[in-house]
Amino acid sequence: MFSPHALATILTLAAAVALGPLSTDMYLPALPRMTDDLHTSIDQMQLTLSVFFAGFALAQLLYGPLADRFGRKPIMLAGLAIFSLASIGCAMATSVEQLMAFRFVQALGACGGPVLGRTMVRDIHGPEKAAPVLALIGTIMALAPAVAPIFGGGLIIWFDWQAIFLFLAFFGFVLMAVYGMKVQESLKDEYKKPFNLSSILSSYQRLLCHREYIGFTLTCSFVYSGLFCFLSASSFVLINFFGVAEEHFGFYFTIVVCGYMIGTQLVQRFSVYVGQRKMLLQGAIIATVAGIAMAVPSLLQKDTLGWLIATQLLFMIGVGMVMPLSMGGALAPFSDIAGTASSLLGFLQSVVAASVGIIVGHMYSDTPLVMTVAIASMGSLTLVSYLLFLRQKDQPQA
């Protein structure tokens, strides 16, 4: 068994948290080809992303309470099994409707990774050290989505888009074996909660009445939705509008992901000295400025690929700063219902992201305008959420 504080445990949790990004980022270069192969439209194909996030959101409402009752490990293993089997179903889909259905089920399994990964970090490292560890996991995790579009583009060329989902199934089964044999249960017996409707609703009410929990959840949700705007539209913007080759899309995506890694590294290195609240504010300001700077050329119809990538990289630095600090801050006061707190955070984050993704897909007009304006709006709402709910003090949660 791995020691709970060992790097091997952190790597395994990072792999589990990465299930969501891998499930979206790896098949981004394939979206235009899949649109043609499945004889569907761009907005229908973009719905396969939003449907995934809808399933991701709904299942999270159950994962946390189940994990607070039965433990983290059995619930995580069940989620990994569902994810792997549904990934095989995605590879076998012959219509966009079938693909949507399997993507929904795939999401039901994938969401266990982020929910329980965050929860286990809170279990093991406590309220004050959770945010830097989440930032470290974010840095490690970012390597996967950085490589995923490149690897996905290669699979399209060497085989076809179905190979992407078969690889995801293989990844899920391997992770299931490692987690099952090597990772210890992190939930203490005294923190186990009854699994019944009254207990669940009481826990959710407690969270929704906590002002700072709402503030951290909103900042996390809005900045993540800005990232999701880029995920849902970037392949069409880069490949169809700017003429980027499918096999080169992943390289541009990797540049953008480097921004996220820079942001998480800044949190890991400086949050103790600067203060977590100040760093969260700085990240929100960076995301706002970057989003507005990205949208201005689109509004003037003077888009360039270099400026788009540069400003998205800057936006991702803000994302890398805001997300781990928001997650750590949201979970810090709730050691007794950490799983439920992680579930509600993930649910609200996914609902906001899926809703924004549907709007972007519906309004997409073969130019970057809708995507860039949406990203600017999400960055601005991140800053507004901080100013409304979180600016009163700057000290670690206890």
The figure for the number of domains is 1
Largest sheet: none
* Helical residue percent band: over 70%
Distance between the termini: 30 Å
Q: Architecture, CATH level 2? A: Up-down Bundle
- Which radius of gyration do the C-alpha atoms yield? 20 Å
Low-confidence stretches: 394-398
Q: Which outline best applies?
A: globular
What is the CATH level 1 assignment?
Answer: Mainly Alpha
Q: What is the typical, i.e. mean, pLDDT?
A: 84
> In percent terms, what proportion of residues is strand?
under 5%
Structural features, described:
- With 398 residues, the protein is mainly alpha-helical.
- The chain has a single domain (7-181, 206-389), classed as MFS general substrate transporter like domains (Growth Hormone, Chain: A, Up-down Bundle), CATH 1.20.1250.
- Helices cover 82% and strands 0% of the residues.
- It has helices spanning 7-17, 19-25, 31-37, 42-70, 72-92, 96-110, 112-158, 162-182, 197-208, 211-241, 246-274, 276-299, 305-331, 338-363, 369-389.
What is this structure's SSE topology?
Blueprint: H1 7-17, H2 19-25, H3 31-37, H4 42-70, H5 72-92, H6 96-110, H7 112-158, H8 162-182, H9 197-208, H10 211-241, H11 246-274, H12 276-299, H13 305-331, H14 338-363, H15 369-389
Helix pairs in contact: 1-7, 1-8, 2-7, 3-4, 4-5, 4-6, 4-7, 4-14, 5-6, 5-7, 5-8, 7-11, 7-13, 7-14, 10-13, 10-14, 10-15, 11-12, 11-13, 12-13, 12-15
